[in-house]
Design goal:
By secondary structure, the chain is α/β, with parallel strands linked by helices. The protein contains four helices and six strands. The longest helix is centred in the last third of the chain and has 12 residues. The chain starts with a strand and ends in a 6-residue tail after the last helix.
Length: 115
């Protein structure tokens, strides 16, 4: 069983991703980067998917906090600011085709985890 931490102040991304992945994938959701960082420190995840713009602590600030203790966990940063590639962080433009998001999740979790 795979476990994903989804950090976004809007629930739409969670609904979309739940439709993409296998029913065996378990999700935790945080509404901002601070909650996401707290959940990360309390649990073990196979993948983190986060929005960039959120209240309290944005996605990049949360990632910087995670990288202080864990350089290996894959992270997908969804941003309306455009796409770029960072070390072990996949950045996808928010308005991008959902096929790209699905492929990235498949690459990180394995194709057997995708519908």
């Amino acid at each position: 069983m795979k476990k994903i931490l989804l950090v976004d102040d809007e629930i739409d991304l969670l609904r979309i991703i739940k439709k993409m992945v296998d029913d065996d994938v378990v999700f935790d959701r945080a509404c901002n980067g601070r909650e996401g960082l707290d959940l990360f420190h309390q649990n073990k995840y196979d993948l983190i998917i986060t929005d960039y713009e959120m209240p309290v602590l944005n996605g990049l600030e949360m990632i910087m906090g995670i990288r202080k203790t864990d350089y290996s966990i894959p992270i997908i940063l969804v941003s309306g600011k455009g796409a770029l590639i960072l070390n072990n962080i996949s950045v996808i433009e928010k308005s991008a085709d959902l096929k790209k998001l699905k492929k990235t999740i498949s690459d990180l979790l394995g194709p057997e985890m995708i519908r």
